[in-house]
Amino acid sequence: MNHKYITRNIIFLCIILVCIISISTISCKKDAFLDTTNKTNLDDGTLWASEQNADIFLNGCYANLYPTGADWPDTQMDNFSDDAHARVYFNSYSWKEGNVDVSLRPSGGFGGSQGPSNGNNSWETTYKNVRNINSFIENLREHSSNFTTSYVAKRSDEATFLRAYYYSELFMRIGGFIIDTVVQSRATSTLDELRKPRNTYEETFNFIISELDKIINNGNLKIKYENSDPDGGRATLGAAMVLKGWLQLFAASPAYNSALPAVADPGNLQHFGSYNAARWADAAATN
Questions:
Q1: How many angstroms separate the CA atoms of 243 and 228, rounded?
Q2: Residue 107: what are its φ and ψ, rounded to 5°?
Q3: Are 58 and 159 in contact (CB under 8 A)?
Q4: Is residue 218 a contact partner of residue 157, using CB atoms and an 8 Å limit?
Q5: What is the full DSSP assignment across the chain?
């Protein structure tokens, strides 16, 4: 038997065994350089551990912004007539006019079937977005020790703007709604908290405007961002002022700024219930 051959093989096997053990030991170390966090599926333990991770959650709230470029609430066909807002032709206006068959799904388009509202006139979609934003704001406060003070202030105002924006879209379509600023849970919330009534038109309007005023007065956001700015595309003071001015002008219209509503409205959900010329002055001042 060739002893040199056997010895050489034993040495070779030992080297392989040492390499395997070494690799296993390195890979099992908690802080090994190959250990990474999968940011496509973050849990609460890692999501609020850093500003970078928290931004991933807030970016999701931005991602739900409604698409632009569509020709709602009116269609070009209606612009040539005295029917200046699509009325019963679109699903959102079917709901407003009471011409609704809830068993049908919306197909959209001129003369489309009537059914549950969707997109930026949807109660369900709005509150899904608002719940995410409320969750973001609450978790920023709860895990504030993981963030800088400036980050919390800035991102809180951004989230507050997004909530005001989502609410404004619903407000312009249905009037007063349930004002919700906390995360509701069937496990912890009381029945009264889960079954809150709709706020009046005036209460809803005042809430949205006050939220925008806080953002403007805080001054944590820039007036605008340049395209090269890392925060380009995020909420700005300019956006908050524009939204405030638009809503004030919208609400000052005789359709809502009146003592008598266009249709029966005993709960003042669709109008202020009074005329006030100051609403025009406020809109002018902001704009």
A1: 24
A2: -110, -10
A3: yes
A4: yes
A5: --HHHHHHHHHHHHHHHHHHHHHHHHHH-TT-TT----TTS--HHHHTSSHHHHHHHHHHHHHTPPPS---TTS-HHHHTSS--S-GGGSHHHHHHHT---TTSPP--STTPPP-S--GGG-HHHHHHHHHHHHHHHHHHHHTGGGS-HHHHHHHHHHHHHHHHHHHHHHHHHH-------S---TTTS-HHHHTPPPPPHHHHHHHHHHHHHHHHHH--S-S---TTSTTTTS--HHHHHHHHHHHHHHHTSTTTSSSS-SS--TT-SSS-SS--THHHHHHHHH-
Q: What is the per-residue pLDDT across 43-56, written as a single tens digit (0 to 9) for each?
A: 667 899 999 999 99
Q: Is the peptide bond before 73 cis (omega within 30 degrees of 0)?
A: yes
How confident is the model at residue 242, as a pLDDT? 97
Q: Which residue has the tokens 């009046």?
A: 200
Please say whether the beta carbons of 79 and 87 come within 8 A. Answer: no
Structure tokens at 209: 């405007």
Q: What is the pLDDT of residues 191-220, one digit of tens each?
A: 877 788 999 999 999 999 999 999 999 999
Two structure tokens written together for 122: 């949807």
Over residues 82-127, the pLDDT tens digits come to: 554 444 444 444 544 444 454 555 554 434 444 445 566 678 889 9
Q: What is the pLDDT of residues 145-198, one digit of tens each?
A: 999 999 999 999 999 999 999 999 999 988 999 999 999 877 777 887 778 899
Cα dihedral sign, 132-133-134-138: positive
Phi, psi of 117 (to 5 degrees): -70, 155
Residue 98 structure tokens: 């009471």
